[in-house]
Design brief:
By secondary structure, the protein is mainly β. The protein has one domain (about 1-364). The chain contains 4 helices and 18 strands. The protein has helices spanning about 5-15, 75-80, 310-315, 335; strands at about 30-35, 40, 60-65, 95, 100, 110, 130-135, 150-155, 170-175, 195, 210-215, 220, 235, 255, 260-265, 285-290, 300-305, 320. Strands 10-9-11-15-7-1-18 form a 7-stranded mixed β-sheet, with no helix packed on it. It has a 5-stranded antiparallel β-sheet with strand order 2-3-4-17-8, with no helix packed on it. A 3-stranded antiparallel β-sheet has the order 6-5-16, with no helix packed on it. A hairpin with a 5-residue loop joins strand 5 and strand 6 (about 110). The longest helix is centred in the N-terminal third of the chain and has 12 residues, at about 5-15. The chain is globular and about 55 Å long. The two termini are about 35 Å apart. It comes from Coniochaeta pulveracea.
């Protein structure tokens, strides 16, 4: 999507001096936006259930082919030999829960993923069906410090089923595409209560459902991980930042600014919009692979794996937009899709299922 907010911010960056630096250059805005095709769908979770085969629920994973049940290697960029991401020096792994449709007869079907809208002439991202669109943004005051080898984090709570207050309001959201496709969407995510929801949309979405997940932007500067994969990072004191926000101070416990990492997944729900197949009680029919029928339990995992100084160099470069940054190498979608990881847990992932893998939800 072509976000007007980004265009306006970039224009402002060129026209006005800021009281502090944005990235490492005054007035600069950098936003890497690139697609990563699917590397595997499997019931593995090297962060929450390291070494456990199978883990508790299914994930969809993109990125480098070093992904495995344990991920004990401190620098995965040295363990991977290929990546499904457009930037060929990015061997990181990115993953989220899968989405399922539950028919009126009680059976489940995995919802496929679509490609992303064409922005900045990036046709690679339009062809990542089954993948994730990834963003790294340095539109914040002060120096941005890229992640280090061994860094990993988790955002969201797979067990969350309700939410009160507004502290995590912008952490994750869903957008129901009411048109036949999502190509005309021009507004940034998780900022408009009229079109973005924290829970699953309750009505059929003719163009599918978009899911956005924002990671924390502050780091303690010491720990590459923590026991719950969250405590070493934090949101600004004002809570999760709005996308491309220039505000929000980091807490004193987490003073180091890190890139704004965001995932975007487009779920192609168009084949499941027949309300005659929805539950008779009127509830919406979708569930995450965790068994969550609300959508509040959406979560995402990240293991850093950029080669050498590539990501820091990009964050230090003013004006990198989309999948074009002078010093970063890219690859074709064909080469990216040739990269894969062998599935470990042999389960049906595309047929109609009597229950979710690892989960028995019971009645809906």
């Amino acid at each position: 999507m072509v976000w007007k907010a980004l265009v306006a911010l970039a224009a402002l960056a060129d026209a006005l001096p800021f009281s502090g630096e944005v990235s490492t250059r005054q007035g600069s805005v950098t936003m890497l936006r690139f697609g990563c095709a699917q590397v595997v769908i499997d019931r593995l979770d090297p962060l929450v259930n390291p070494g456990q085969i199978p883990s508790t629920h299914v994930h969809q994973i993109v990125g480098g082919n070093a992904f495995n049940a344990s991920m004990t290697t401190s620098d995965v960029s040295n363990a991977a030999s290929c990546t499904t991401c457009e930037f060929s020096e990015d061997f990181s792994n990115y993953w989220t829960a899968n989405l399922y449709f539950k028919a009126r007869n009680g059976t489940y079907k995995r919802v496929p993923q679509g490609g992303a809208a064409n922005q900045f002439g990036d046709t690679f991202s339009t062809k990542i069906g089954g993948g994730i669109l990834v963003y790294y943004v340095s539109a914040q005051p002060g120096k941005i410090t890229a992640f280090k080898p061994g860094f990993r984090m988790l955002v969201g709570d797979p067990m969350e089923r309700s939410r009160t207050g507004t502290t995590l309001k912008r952490q994750n959201c869903y957008r129901c595409y009411t048109g036949p496709n999502f190509g005309g969407d021009v507004s940034a995510p998780c900022q408009d209560n009229k079109i973005d929801t924290e829970a699953f949309p309750t009505a059929p979405c003719p163009g599918g459902i978009r899911s956005n997940i924002h990671f924390p932007t502050c780091w303690d500067g010491k720990n590459l991980d923590s026991p719950n994969h969250k405590d070493h990072v934090a949101y600004p004191v004002s809570g999760p930042a709005t996308f491309l926000s220039l505000g929000g101070n980091c807490p004193s416990t987490h003073p180091v600014r890190i890139p704004q990492l965001m995932y975007e997944v487009v779920w192609d729900t168009t084949k499941f919009n027949n309300k005659a197949e929805w539950p008779t009680n009127g509830k919406q029919p979708f569930a995450l692979s965790t068994g969550d029928e609300t959508g509040y339990g959406q979560h995402a995992d990240y293991v850093f794996g950029w080669k050498g100084n590539a990501l820091q160099s990009a964050m230090d470069t003013s004006g990198c937009m989309g999948a074009k940054c002078a010093q970063l190498k890219t690859q074709t979608i064909e080469k990216a899709k040739a990269c894969s990881v062998k599935k470990v847990v042999q389960e049906d992932q595309d047929g109609w299922l009597d229950k979710l893998p690892g989960i028995d939800m019971g009645g809906m």
